[in-house]
Amino acid sequence: MDTGQPASLCGRLLAAIGAIPIVDTHEHLEEEGNTSRLERSGWTLLLHYVQCDLVAAGVDGLALQRATAPGTAPEERWDALAPWWPAVSQGAYMRVLNRGLAALHGVPSLSRGNVAEVEARMRRTYATGAYQKALKDLANIEVSLVDPLEPDPRDQGPLAHRGLACDPTYFLCDYHERVTGDLANSHQRLARRLGREVGDLAAWKGALADDLARVAAWAPAIKCTLGYSRALDFEPVTEADAARLAARTIAGQPLAEAEHKALQDHFVDYLADLGAEHGLPLMFHTGLHAGGGNFLERTRLEPFTGLVRRHPRTRFDLFHIAYPNDRDAIVLAKYYGNVSLDFCWAWAFAPRDAEATLHACLDLLPVDKVCAFGGDYFHLEGALGHSLVAREGIARVLAERVERGWLTEEGALAVALTILHDGPARLFRTAEKLAAVRAARSARV
Ligand SMILES: [Zn+2]
């Protein structure tokens, strides 16, 4: 709308930032047309992170179960959660959801009156391909690095890499190392996946190396989510010690907790070696956990320093700015050239704090070590809504720096281009990976 008034500095910056195509470092979106998760999870999908706020609000477990069970009428779901809506409706997660619903479906905010219509529209959206509209026309995302998270019915198991099934119009698929969580399980899955005996530690590591090598040309990164289940205190464990623990695991003998941790530590070191070998950054979950009920000590970042120091040739991308330990993350990235900070999810859970963190990053760090956006959403509405919130936050931060005389307007846009596009594109070699996926897909046809 042209009002004849000159746009404010922040408004001008926001308009120019809107034209920057984002390299989105993290999503959990399904491929276009794949509605299996939507069908399976219904409202769980729609609410996504709002559920974390419901948990924080003390939601009754049975009410939440009733609200998210498949086959329940949308209004019934709404009513089951009625006592908790006021507590969560002003939170950041609900704002992101509402921004996405407004932008994609023209629905101003979720309410009892429109919840049935919203569900119906989501369903239509996923089946009929609003990916172009949501991710390109509205969010202006060049490519999203995606962890599809759940096994797809077409997968051979949770370790399967979507690889060439991921449409490079929108996605590059991470290599998710699901080999170090429950080690006994992981060993069996890896052996099945490779279709061969994995009889000792050397064979186990060889299988992991081969599994990664199959997709290394297409994968932009190795994703590690161990930060959900343990502290980030990865310590060196000798080959001999790890071999003994691996032998017992393979023989089906249970390991004590400390032993399991030691074997995990050994595998994480090995993954870091593989990352260096293939030039694949390790995306590490650090900081805040989704879902509630976790342990604060697992959000701490100091113990991570050892792993970073042992692997100077491996790039580490710290997801979620290690919130609330974002200042520690900045210091780690300042001390070590191989550490980058990633704002994925951050503008959705703490938009005001993310602005402060971005200010600190721009003061303290080389600008190309900041990845400024990753949606981290299960649905288009979240990815889109989050991208709008992030662009606004970035525009506000940069406008303030221009007003202080620390940047010119032109310089501010150069920063925005680096943190939203050029920096992450270089870190994850997205142009090279996209070209490799396209070439392999067309050779297959
Ligand atoms: Zn995620």
Describe this structure in words.
The protein is an alpha/beta fold. The chain has two domains: 9-32 and 133-444, Metal-dependent hydrolases (TIM Barrel), CATH 3.20.20.140; 34-128, Orthogonal Bundle (uronate isomerase, domain 2, chain A). Helix content is 53%, strand content 7%. The chain contains 21 helices and nine strands. The strands form two sheets. The protein has a six-stranded parallel β-sheet with strand order 4-5-6-7-8-9. It starts with 8 loop residues before the first helix and ends with a helix. The structure holds zinc ion (ZN). Zinc ion is lined by residues 26, 28, 376.
Please give a handful of descriptors for the protein shown.
TIM Barrel; 445 residues; uronate isomerase, domain 2, chain A; alpha/beta; binds zinc ion; 53% helix
Task: Give the helices and strands, then pairings.
Elements: H1 9-18, E1 22-27, H2 36-41, H3 43-47, H4 50-56, H5 61-68, H6 74-80, H7 85-88, H8 92-105, H9 115-128, H10 131-138, E2 141-146, E3 171-173, E4 175-176, H11 183-194, H12 201-215, E5 222-224, H13 239-250, H14 257-278, E6 282-284, H15 305-310, E7 316-318, H16 326-335, E8 339-342, H17 346-349, H18 351-364, E9 370-371, H19 380-403, H20 409-427, H21 430-444
Parallel strand pairs: 1-2, 2-3, 4-5, 5-6, 6-7, 7-8, 8-9
Bound molecules: zinc ion.
Question: Could you provide a short overview of the structure?
Answer:
With 445 residues, this protein is α/β, with parallel strands linked by helices. Helix content is 53%, strand content 7%. Strands 4-5-6-7-8-9 form a 6-stranded parallel beta sheet. It has a 3-stranded parallel beta sheet with strand order 1-2-3, with helices on both faces.
